[in-house]
Design brief:
Layout lengths: L24 E13 L3 E7 L4 E7 L16 E12 L5 E14 L18 H6 L1 H4 L3 H23 L3 E2 L5 E2 L11 E4 L2 E5 L4 H11 L1 E9 L12 E10 L5 H21 L1 H6 L12 E3 H11 L11 H15 L3 E5 L12 E2 L2 E5 L1 E6 L2 E8 L4 H10 L8 H8 L5 E7 H9 L20
Parallel strand pairs: 3-5, 6-10, 12-13
Antiparallel strand pairs: 1-2, 1-4, 2-3, 4-5, 7-9, 8-9, 10-11, 11-18, 13-16, 14-15, 16-17, 17-18
Length: about 450
């Protein structure tokens, strides 16, 4: 009787260990990414989980002969001798002299998009329509390997700072942010909403764990059709209790970003190199009040009509200003107007017209919103009433305040926007594995 031990037996050799096996015959598994036929030999690139491994076919190496069913995108097990070769820049690499190819599967059709080139050359809509195929391109998949690193860095850093990871429900009785940009659902005859944010649950868990974080999708029913908006995106959130000031939150985020970028440089170097990523250097991040930032924009830009928030061109200007003045890719803008912040945001005791809140701009685009929350029950109820909200509809949320909560605050960081600007993309959809916007719900 066979027993399952939990130990995976794998006879293949990862590329990282080729150096140990020069002159020996090893086996790899992967997809045939590209075939270049020459007169008496061929180069065959095998795409593994993270590398492209060059294999060389020649009748000189073995009795094996290529057959017509050895085609691109076929899955294969390839055996061959590890040898060294020299790249154009003089560095050493390893390749396989093919002894045998065992086909594991053969595609039924030719892919609709050429993915064996260095990058995908097609319109964005075509790329997204064929996402299960285009993601196989090394540059395309490297984007989301880096995204893994961003999430991993966020998680590792916060866990090192005493945070507990949580998972909040995505079907809620009310919108966390207020307003109308929520997706309604018929939930067994009741109207409920897809979560705009894990905000209310993060706050509820501060008295439980003191520091919590979540990496999960959120949903915004906004009719934006722009290069920076999605209707479903990944939000990296945290909430922390017993803060002295909302600057504690900004310090925590700055520490997390430093950790993330060091992790990318050290452990995601192949992807960083492939995508030519300019990793930001952070020693500190400058801060400016919203009022002062607005005055800068008014002086430098024309036709500013909204004095309560920033337009995209204003954010872009502030990004350039921070780079010129402080050599910083990041800029914290603080003390946003109370009218433009959610109901749970604490007003500044010294000036109730503004809040103890902030946005973080990265190279001229907002990637984070955060701030201190109201923790006093009477203060929260009074603000709800002032905004025309019915506190009775938020009875479970107000348990947090009614039964005691410490001073606390937190933030939400958009994963796709951070990735987009880190990689210099012009559209956030390039940084989204399977985008969901007002026009797209497939594939």
């Amino acid at each position: 009787m066979e027993e399952i031990t939990g130990v995976l037996q794998d006879s293949t050799t990862p590329y990282s260990e080729f150096k140990k096996h020069v002159g020996e015959v090893v086996t790899i598994k992967g997809a045939i990414h590209n075939i270049r036929l020459m007169s008496d030999f061929a180069f065959i690139l095998i795409r593994t989980a993270r590398e492209l491994i060059q294999c060389v076919y020649s009748t000189e190496f073995s009795d094996y002969r290529l057959t017509e069913d050895v085609v691109e995108q076929a899955s294969a097990k390839v055996s061959g001798k590890v040898v060294t070769s020299e790249t154009r820049d003089g560095s050493e690499r390893y390749e396989l002299q093919i002894h045998n190819i065992e086909l594991l599967s053969v595609p039924a059709a030719i892919p609709p998009v050429v993915i064996s080139k260095k990058q995908i050359n097609c319109e964005l809509s075509v790329n997204l329509d064929n996402r299960p195929v285009t993601l196989r391109n090394p540059k395309e998949r490297a984007v989301f390997k880096l995204q893994e690193g961003i999430q991993r860095g966020f998680r590792e850093y916060l866990q090192s700072q005493g945070f507990t990871e949580i998972h909040s429900p995505k079907i809620n009785f009310a919108g966390a942010e207020g307003g109308t940009n929520v997706f309604k659902l018929d939930y067994f005859g009741k109207t409920v909403y897809l979560a705009q944010s894990p905000q209310l649950y993060k706050q509820a868990l501060v008295p439980v764990y003191e520091r919590v974080f979540e990496i999960a999708p959120v949903f915004r029913a906004e009719h934006h059709d722009t290069s920076r908006h999605l209707n479903e995106y990944i939000s990296m959130d945290f909430e922390m209790g017993f803060i002295e000031s909302f600057t504690d939150i900004m310090n925590m985020e700055t520490g997390a970003l430093k950790y993330i970028f060091e992790l990318l440089k050290n452990e995601y170097a192949p992807e960083v190199e492939l995508l030519k990523v300019e990793i930001p250097q952070i020693t500190s991040i400058p801060c400016i009040r919203f009022k002062d930032a607005k005055e800068l924009c008014v002086k430098k830009l024309k036709n500013i009509t909204d004095m309560k928030d920033f337009e995209p061109d204003e954010e872009a200007f502030l990004g350039k200003w921070a780079k010129q003045q402080f050599n910083s890719d990041f800029l914290f803008v603080t003390h946003y107007l109370s009218k433009k912040r959610p109901f749970y945001t604490m007003d500044d005791p010294e000036d109730p017209e503004v809040t103890l809140s902030f946005d973080l701009l990265f190279r001229g685009i907002e990637i984070t919103s955060g701030g201190q929350r109201i923790h006093d029950y009477n203060m929260q109820v009074e603000k709800m009433k002032r905004l025309g909200m019915n506190p009775e509809e938020f009875e479970t949320y107000l348990m947090l305040h009614k039964y005691g909560a410490p001073p606390h605050g937190g933030l939400g960081l958009g994963l796709e926007r951070l990735t987009m600007h880190l990689l210099g993309f012009k559209n956030v959809r390039y940084a989204t594995m399977f985008p969901r916007d007002i026009n797209r719900v497939s594939p």
